[in-house]
Amino acid sequence: MDNRNTILAIALSALVLIGWQFFFAKPQIDAQRQQQATQQALTADKSDAPQPGAANAPQPSGQAAPNAPAKTREGALRDSPRIPIDAERLHGSIALIGGRVDDVTLKDYRETVDPKSPEIVLFAPIGSPQPYYAEFGFVNAPGGQIPLPNAQTEWKAESQGPLTSQTPAVLTWDNGQGLTFRRTISVDKDYLFTVKDEVANAAGGQAATLYPYALISRHGEPHVSGYYVLFEGLIGVMGDQGLQELAYKKITDDGPRTFRPTGGWLGITDKYWAAALVPPQDKPYNARFAATTEGGKTYQTDYLLDPLTVQPGATATVAGQLFAGAKQVSVIDAYENSPSWWQKALGAQTADRAGIQRFELMIDWGWFHFITKPMFYALDFFYKMVGNFGVAILIVTVILKLIFFPLANKSYVSMSKMKLVQPEMARIRERFKDDKVKQQQELMELYKKEKINPLAGCLPVVVQIPVFFALYKVLFITIEMRHAPFFGWIHDLAAPDPTSLFNLFGLLPYDVPHFLMIGVWPLIMGVTMFLQMRLNPAPADPAQQMVFTWMPVFFTFLLASFPAGLVIYWSWNNFLSIVQQAVIMKRQGVKIDLLGNVLDTFKRKKPTDAAKG
């Protein structure tokens, strides 16, 4: 019975692992997005939606010359005079033509684990193969004819020095009709730009009414991972309407989505990187997600503020913010409104917060965020102590074992008692072999008398399932785990073990197919699972014996493509479970014959006389 329960528990885990994304996560995500689409359609009919005839931010458009061959990024950068950016964590430049932030490279991240590989390029200018940029500006009121700075306007720089976290860049432009625009661009020590526009109206003229806007435009179809556990596309928090996620295909097929929120943010997110606009948090604005296929695919998020009227002799000021960088948890949280109590307890920073509403949703923590995010904070806490996320995983696994010890102890004690009463169980089965109902009743009476839970064997494995998924999510989505090394050959805990048994771990000079990439750690995991199962004698039933024997092999292949950090966790957890179960069995007086059980697995069964005949 205990072996049967172990098999049941492992089979249940396998079923959850395989079916999770198809039967649980996908329907929930699809349902949520359908609900959002319905809500958005209803919202479009309400009075607070942008009305026909109102001003709009510039429409998304393709390349200025779609038939012209794309230049290199370096060639496109030379097409406009620029102010360099040299901040602590990013560098690049600002185009004076259009006043755009269109050249951002992240200093701390590289394309591969090789420290000499290229740095991650986030923004690229128009004219390059895949332009991606942010733009701030003004549009006229309907019917207005005021000359305003646009995408072709060349701004003047007050100084040629680089934009740093201590030195802002200042741009100016005069429309020749009494309006002077002064733009101050600053950046903090991480990834947040602040763009402040001042509009001065000369005395003796007429009042000017302008609509401030900001947009992020991405040209070309971005590469997406295609996993249901991760969202990539257009994203934002629309005030009280909450999180909105629109995949690239959906926004292309369904058309623009508009909102009228107060507070929040909107942008475009990749797995590890993002760009987001942050309008003033205390004023309503018109937000839009849009796409076009004319001249090539282009995706755009933008917002339009309420009109700004500048009287003669007066100056008006408006400001917005732009996040352009890595989705580092501590940085994202630092731009959030305020940390929760448990974030503070685990070391979340509270200073220099930008007050961006629900900015933590930029990271896709998933439906089990209440487990996933604390899991990350626990790993990060120990990482700061030991300097290695792999070691942090080992420490957290031990702590989880201690937390769940009462439950596991009760389970293993019950399993040990079941071993002690196996002779009595065998007698009951033999005595009532022709009456299955009576046999089951007698077995249940025996369990009750000896205080045995026949399903106790499921608990140690089942309790791992939420922890397993939380750790999987953390390894998959957080940039902190990207390229995080362990020891030896593991240089990236978020990637599968790069070795393979089928080329003798690199000794043979050929690459093996993906499905045969069975590395060292998956093998260790399989061996520890095999040993854990062999703490119990093999079941008598041949079908159960086969399952009992092949289950570790199945899991070895199944988990070989999972992140190495997850396989290390499972292997270490198996080892701790073996020690824990062996100690409890010994205390209960159960004989442990691990070596004998292992040898029995490989013994050939002698054919019976009937079989010989």
Model description:
By secondary structure, this protein is of the alpha+beta class. Among the domains are: 46-364, Beta-galactosidase, Chain A, domain 5; 496-604, no CATH class. The protein is 37% helix and 21% strand. It has helices at 2-44, 73-77, 248-254, 329-334, 341-345, 369-386, 389-403, 405-420, 422-431, 436-450, 459-462, 464-477, 520-533, 542-559, 564-587, 594-602, 609-612; strands at residues 82-86, 90-95, 100-110, 119-123, 132-140, 156-157, 169-174, 179-187, 192-201, 208-219, 233-237, 243-246, 257-259, 265-269, 273-278, 285-292, 298-305, 308-310, 315-326. The strands form 3 sheets. Strands 6-7-8-9-19-15-14-11-12 form a 9-stranded antiparallel beta sheet. Helix 6 crosses helix 7 (389-403), helix 7 runs parallel beside helix 15 and helix 9 runs antiparallel to helix 10. It is elongated. It starts with a helix and ends with a helix. The model is unreliable at 20-53 and 606-613 (pLDDT under 50).
What's the short version?
The chain is of the alpha+beta class and 613 residues long.
